Design the sequence.
């Protein structure tokens, strides 16, 4: 892939913000959150070592948005181009998942599509993953090879900028003064950092390397008590689904405005008690354990069946956010152990 | 396709029929042509108030207007019940698969219905009787709580029973003293020899508990799970397989249903709740 070099990020950010709104990661406590970037005269932008704690879906599928106006149709016409810096490979994979849902040929969401088209994605390599990161277990990597317009890798003397799309190429060609050629030494340094980060992930997640596909583990354990037991500490705060970059449930509701009616779309959570209830009172997932089971089965089995992708990218946001201490990794491990015990019992019985 | 998924077309309520103490049928004329297949559903919006899914109870052959039978069950349906003629409503859809009519050709169609579940069944029934010669027979077993709770009484208690090729039996949970027919839940009038199982398809629609016990009975009779068609009522909201509320296991009821064979969904938890 084609790459160029830049010694400092600020000129790049300033060039981007000339053309469009720009969001950059900013440290907030232990985490990074995205904030609007105005110009380099502001405090220096930190190169985020790890994904932000907020999910990228916020940019494409906002917490609340207008979905329709009655009687006149609403159109996504006022959406301006924008750029997001510092997205990680897990974030890009979450966009791939949301694309499957909202850009389906037959049922195409015009608001999502408009934002997606206007988005300029500047991803960057992860070089110090968090304790909750387990992307390597979910077929991910700490760096991106596709899905971005530009990707940044930090090396000792500056930053390697990789071009991943025509949009990215156009930008680089428009600003030749910003970039120089990238040296082989810098590329080698980047590859070494990438390999080290991958090794770190492998070390910290060694206990999650199952010898059975995760989908099989989940299917075998679909009626396990583990979900009910784990759900006991859930306080139904719904933080797990809010921060999850692939959760995309929403709620459509109607409102009255002064001279028109509107339909709004707002994030919802399958962990909410009345989520699946019908007006007559029936509710297939009254119990928390059933809701937790459905959430994880959706992520690791059902979505895969429908779209050919797992709906968990291993970003660990839900682990960080969970006030009740529910940990998807621990659940997978417990189900794996149950499966192994079952297999052992079967093997003994066969003897 | 660039049309906004969430944008309803406008329709007007031109007539309201009282069906029972809690159920009314609304005749809606859409501003634009609106076609659906029997068993598909629509999202009906009361502007500014809310939206809910309903399967039209009229025949798809009537392309000028559509009838929607609604039981007062919650906030939105309560507000719809207060509507008068002339009220403008929003319609999105049609959504879902509908009944696989072509699979029923040359077979006996065994329809088991209860309560407001007769609404989708009426649309199916009208579609079947329109070409009744294509089917071996249309065998109906319908139930309601009391005689007054039957919807479509005018047709149900007379004309529909007389159609050649239709075999219809009705039952009520509780008689009102004047009722001459069977008393008991709908499963009490299901008999193994109602149809020849090896050349029949069963369609079940009604309250969840009725659907559950009717399905159990049909399985006992020897109906294969893949020949039992269930019209599932779940919380269909977006209608297009995105918002997630109506999921049964991997299926979106709005997109993959609302009609499922029992075989498709039997492995998932709590399907009747």
Sequence:
């Amino acid at each position: 892939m084609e790459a160029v070099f830049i010694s400092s990020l600020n000129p790049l950010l300033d060039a981007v913000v000339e053309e469009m709104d720009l969001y950059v990661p900013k440290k907030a406590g232990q985490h990074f959150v995205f904030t609007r970037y105005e110009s380099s005269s502001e405090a220096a932008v930190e190169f985020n070592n790890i994904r932000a704690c907020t999910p990228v879906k916020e940019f494409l599928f906002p917490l609340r948005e207008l979905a329709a106006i009655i009687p006149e149709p609403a159109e996504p016409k006022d959406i301006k181009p924008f750029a997001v810096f510092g997205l990680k490979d897990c974030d890009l994979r979450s966009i791939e998942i949301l694309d499957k849902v909202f850009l389906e040929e037959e049922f195409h969401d015009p608001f999502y599509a408009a934002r997606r088209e206007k988005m300029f994605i500047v991803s960057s390599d992860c070089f110090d993953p968090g304790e909750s990161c387990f992307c390597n277990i979910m077929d991910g990597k700490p760096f991106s090879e596709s899905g971005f317009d530009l990707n940044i890798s930090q090396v000792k003397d500056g930053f390697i900028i990789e071009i991943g799309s025509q949009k990215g190429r156009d930008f680089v060609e428009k600003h030749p003064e910003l970039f120089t050629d990238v040296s082989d030494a810098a590329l080698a340094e980047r590859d070494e950092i990438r390999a080290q980060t991958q090794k770190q992930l492998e070390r910290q997640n060694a206990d999650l390397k199952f010898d059975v596909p995760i989908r099989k583990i989940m299917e075998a354990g679909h009626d396990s008590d583990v979900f009910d037991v784990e759900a006991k500490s859930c306080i139904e705060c719904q933080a797990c689904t809010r921060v999850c970059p692939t959760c995309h449930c929403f709620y459509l509701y109607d409102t009255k405005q002064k001279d028109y009616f509107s339909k709004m779309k707002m994030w919802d959570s399958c962990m909410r008690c009345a989520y699946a209830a019908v007006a007559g009172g029936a509710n297939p997932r009254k119990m928390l354990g059933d809701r937790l089971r459905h959430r994880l089965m959706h992520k690791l089995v059902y979505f895969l069946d429908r779209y050919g992708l797992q709906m968990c990218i291993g970003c660990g946001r839900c682990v960080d956010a969970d006030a009740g201490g529910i940990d998807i990794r621990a659940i997978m491990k417990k189900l794996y152990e149950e499966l192994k015990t079952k297999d052992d019992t079967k093997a003994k019985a066969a003897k | 396709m660039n049309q906004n998924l969430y944008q309803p077309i406008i329709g007007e309520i031109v007539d309201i029929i009282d069906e029972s103490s809690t159920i009314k049928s609304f005749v809606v004329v859409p501003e634009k042509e609106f076609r659906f297949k029997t068993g598909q559903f629509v999202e009906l919006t009361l502007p500014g108030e809310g939206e809910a899914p309903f399967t039209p109870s009229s025949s798809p052959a009537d392309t000028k207007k559509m009838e929607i039978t609604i039981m007062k069950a919650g906030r939105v349906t309560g507000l719809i019940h207060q509507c008068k003629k002339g009220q403008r409503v929003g319609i999105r859809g049609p959504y879902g698969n509908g009944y696989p009519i072509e699979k029923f050709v040359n077979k006996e169609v065994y329809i088991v219905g209860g309560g407001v579940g007769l609404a989708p069944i009426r649309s199916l029934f009208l579609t079947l009787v329109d070409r009744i010669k294509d089917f071996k027979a249309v065998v109906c077993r319908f139930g309601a709580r009391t005689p007054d709770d039957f919807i479509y009484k005018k047709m149900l208690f007379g004309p529909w029973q007389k159609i050649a090729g239709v075999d219809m039996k009705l039952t009520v949970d509780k008689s009102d003293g004047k009722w001459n027919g069977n008393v008991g839940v709908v499963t009490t009038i299901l008999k193994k020899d109602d149809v020849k199982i090896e050349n029949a398809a069963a369609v079940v629609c009604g309250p969840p508990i009725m659907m559950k016990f009717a399905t159990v009975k049909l399985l006992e009779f020897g109906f294969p799970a893949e020949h039992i068609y269930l019209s599932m009522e779940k919380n269909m909201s977006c209608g297009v397989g995105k918002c997630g509320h109506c999921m049964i296991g991997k299926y979106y009821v709005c997109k993959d249903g609302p009609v499922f064979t029992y075989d498709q969904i039997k492995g998932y938890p709590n399907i009747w709740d």
